[in-house]
Each structure stands twice: as C-alpha cells, then as structure tokens.
Amino acid sequence: MLDLSARDIAIIGYGDTKLARRSGRNVAELAGLAVKDLLARTGIDRREIDGFASTLAMSEGSNPFWTNLLAETLDLSVTWCQATDLGGAAAIGNIARAAMAIRAGVCEMVLCLCADAVSTEDLSFQRGHRTEFYDSIGYPGPVMAFGLLSSVYAERHGWPEEALAKLAVVQRAGGVRNPNACEILRTPITREDYLSSRVVCSPLRLLDCVMRCDGASAFLVTSTRRAREIDAVRMVHPIAYRELSNFDPERRAGDITLSGFSEIGPAVLADAELTPGDVGMFHPYDDFLIAVLLQLEQIGFCKRGQGGSYVLDNELGPEGNLPTNTGGGQISAGQPGLAGGGVNLVEALRQFFGDAESRQVPAPRNALLTGIGVVQYGRNWGCSNAMVLEQGT
Amino acid sequence: MRAREIGRPTSLTRPFWEGVDAGRLLLQRDPGSGRFQFYPKPLASFDAAAQLEWAEVSGLGAVAAVTTVHSAPPEFADAVPYTVALVRLDEGAGIVAPVIGTGSSGARIGDRVRFVGRGAAGVFPFGFALDRTKARQE
Predict the structure, then answer these.
(1) pLDDT value at position B133?
(2) Are the beta carbons of B7 and A149 separated by less than 8 Å?
(3) How far apart are CA A34 and CA A40, in angstroms?
(4) Are B9 and B20 in contact (CB under 8 A)?
(5) Where would you tag: which of A107, A288, B13, B137 has the fewest CB atoms within 10 A of its CB?
(6) Which long-range CB contacts under 8 A does A202-207 form with residues at least 24 apart?
C-alpha cells in the first residue's frame, strides 16, 4: 500500500475545459486549454513544473511517445514522465504515481493531465480478446459487458430500477448546475424519462450509460512543504490510496458482479481511518449507474444487494448526507474517453476549493474518489482504485 | 474511421478458430488438473508451470449471464436484437457468445445451450443454440 497518512503530498490546483460532444478539437488543443486554466488559477509558472503524468487518449490511437509529444507541445521540461494505461482509473492513479515520484525525489511539481477527444475521432485499437473474441460476436462496447453482469445482479437481488432512476435524476440535476458539463446533458430529467428511455443492452437503458465526449482536466501535485513555501492558497491532501488490477484471476469468487472494490474499498477507508459514515463526499467513477451501486456495496456503505435501498434511503445531492457526483458525474456531464476519471476528480476539487457555485457542498472535509478501468473478458472491470482526499489547511 | 481487424487468429488462438471452422469447440486444458480455460492464454490460469494442451469439449453448458443487444456496431446492425451470453461450459470454462435464434425473447440464466460453429451461427462465427429438450430431460 501507499501510505499517505503523513499528509506530505498536496494537490494545489485544477484546471479544465468545458466538455463537448464532437467538439472538432484536437486533443492537444484541449490539453493546452486545461493547462492554461490550471496555471492561471494557481499562478504557477510553467517552468516550475518538473514532473508530468498523463492518461492516454483514444483520439491519439497508440501513439508510443504520448507524454513526450505532449511535453514538447506544451513546452514542458521535466525530469519524470508517466503515461498511465488504467483507463478510467488513470486519473487518480496518476495522482498516486505523482506522489510516489515526489517522494522518490525525482521531481517536485507534477502536472497530472487527462485529455481525450474521442467523440471527435476514435483511433483506439485494442488487440487481444477484445478484437478477437468480442468484436467478432457483435460487441457494441462496454455496455454489453455491463449488461451481462447486470443480468446476474438482477437475478440475485432484483433489478433496482427505482434506485437507478433516482440516481439518474440526482446526477442530472448536478449536470444541469455544472456549466462545464456537456450542453446537451444540461436538461433536467424525471424518473419517467429514465424508466422510458430505450433499452440498449438489457437490462441497461440509454440513461444508465455515459455519453462519450471531448475534454480535458489538469492538476498540480506537489509536496506539502513546497506548497507552503510558495504560499499555495488552497490545497487538498490525498491521505489514502489503493489500486487493484485483475481481481481474482483464479476465479475463487466466481462472481461476475464482484470487483476489486470488495478488497480495496474497505481497505482504503481503513487506511484513512474513516468509516463509510464519515465520508463527506462521494465521487465514484460512473460509466454506468449500476457501477455506483456496486461500489456502494463493495466499499461497505451497505450490504451486498442493498445498493438500491441505500440510494433510495439517503440524500445524494449537495446538501444531502452523502453528496455524490455533484457535478453530474460522467453520466450527466459526459465521458471524455480515457480522460473520464478527471471529470470526477475535478468536481471533487471544485467542491473543496469552494468553486462549485450553485451546487456547493457546505464545508466538505473529505471525499472518496474512485476509478474503474478496462473491460475484462466475461468478468467484471479490470482495474479498481480509490483515493481519499482531505481538505488542507 | 475506426481501425478494426475482427477475429483474426493468432499463433496463440489458431486451434480454437480451426475448431470453429469444423463446428467443434476446442479449448486449452491443463493436463495435470484437467481444468479448461478460455480465452486462450500463454500460461495456465491455475498453475503457471503447467504445459497447456488443446482438447475438445462437449459444447454443452448453461447460461450464466445474458444480455440482449439492441444497439449494435455497424457490421451487425441487421442482426438486432441479438442475445449474448456468458456460458458456463459443463467442463467449467466460461465463454461469451451469441445465443442463436432467440429473437427478442432472449435467453434466461440457467438455460441449457449447445455450441454451434461457423455456418450454423448466422452472421456470427460461432454461438450457442438453446437446448431446451436437454433441459426437460434433466
């Protein structure tokens, strides 16, 4: 495990672009806009950045020199580079990797970037079981894999349609109040809209799923010592982090609904010395609404099969007892491809920094963030990770 | 334009596809434990030192998870709706494949199915057919 309890690492700023469906923009342009926003908000000189971690971009295909190309294009000169291929888990994965690089002394001011223009151009190509055994049988995308695991959840626990409808409506209300959400998602929806949306891969409906878009977000990670030296106005500490790729390879659990969160979820809260009831905000990775319920159950907010009742019994809006994906999440802000994890992360930071305007959570003290990456063959998702952030002083 | 190369066999997977062409289901087996695995991998899933071999299985199994696809990629647009299942083979391995001929009624978890190879699975290279007779006999 990565012990972050010393609170010696700080995120001192964020920047982002508005999310847009088919923006027509190149991913480097989006990256540049997010970095410009980050530098303007923090007042940091670009020349102070000496470390750089990025997610990959589906719009760039398999560019083998991705972080070096971006460093050159953004005129960054760095002593540590990292491209992280954890899909939706890469955003907080890079914050953790930046912390390790800073601890190792190889850099001290790290730019963590998430940028993708996948809805304008998708050049991604995954060999292995994806093209050979999924594309050949009519694989329409991750929605099929989530349809499969949802059928098992439904068989075992009943399909929690009312809870999913509530979550869809609550997150959409966040998207409506988030000026950086995709404009076409900024229309309120009702329970009936959810329940009457068309089935894409049974039992999943259109409003269970994310919509791909284009966008970028950027974060500055440094040591708490350095943050104090430069009088950083705001800082948030990552205080716990866990990550697990390829949960249960020997199929001991043999359960398609079970993910790595069943191991790392309870562990990350224990690392942070929190119980689920202590969590001030929840910003779960939400490629599909059912993934949020599975995470609530497997992290330990409720028992297995009770994610639906948990959602119905709790208030998830900004003023609620568990403010959840207050900016709409990806479901109601948009999923900028492999940069998707940045949507949840940037919203958490907006809340901590008091920048969330009409959707502001009153005085958030901590937040639990998660990431989900990669679809496995006939199983669950491949990477589960979780980070606890705490308001700095 | 999205780059795709659908279902091209590799040195690791060729015996599976040759089986599909012959209407037979061949999987990797660890001869020590007798356990089958799919998709084809360079190492055995349960014992990394095992020397994997290819062997034919019965092709019989049961639906373990199922979804009906209403929104398909362009190559399969004419086939919608079609049903895709995770089938747990009687020999233990799991394989994801279309359940042929179910129309919009789909299939249910627990349904017995039987493997069909190329030519018997419509637009798909392979699939499973519902084996309801078998289910009644049991």
Answers:
(1) 59
(2) no
(3) 10
(4) no
(5) B137
(6) A202/A147, A202/A151, A202/B67, A202/B68, A202/B70, A202/B106, A203/A147, A203/A150, A203/A151, A203/A154, A203/A159, A203/B67, A204/A143, A204/A146, A204/A147, A204/A150, A204/A288, A204/A290, A204/B67, A207/A168, A207/A289
Mean per-residue pLDDT of chain A = 97
DSSP A115: E
Mean pLDDT on B120-134 = 88
Instruction: Please state, in angstroms and rounded to a whole number, the distance separating the CA atoms of residues A223 and A6.
Output: 11
**A250 contact residues in B (CB cutoff 8 A):** 45-46
Quick check: B46 and A148 CB within 8 A? no
- Cα A287 to Cα A219: distance, rounded to the nearest angstrom: 22
Return d(Cα A70, Cα A81) in angstroms, integer.
Answer: 10
For the segment A161-190, the average pLDDT, to the nearest whole number, is: 98
pTM > 0.90:
yes
Q: Which two tokens stand for residue B24?
A: 């037979």
Binary contact (A138, B95; C-beta < 8 A): no
Note whether A243 and A275 are within 8 A (CB). no
Q: Give me the sign of the Cα torsion angle B9, B12, B13, B18.
A: positive
Three-state SS for A144? helix
The alpha-carbon gap from B74 to the nearest alpha carbon of chain A, in Å, equals 9
The CA R_g of chain A, rounded to the nearest whole Å, is 19
For this complex, say whether ipTM is above 0.90: yes
- C-alpha distances (whole Å) from A107 to each of A97, A104, A226, A238, A357 are 12, 8, 11, 18, 34
pLDDT tens digits for B8-43?
899 999 999 999 999 999 999 999 999 999 999 999
> What is residue B7's predicted lDDT score, i.e. its pLDDT?
75
Q: What is the pLDDT of residues A344-372, one digit of tens each?
A: 999 999 999 999 999 999 999 999 999 99
Helix locations, A260-321, DSSP H: 261-271, 289-299, 307-313
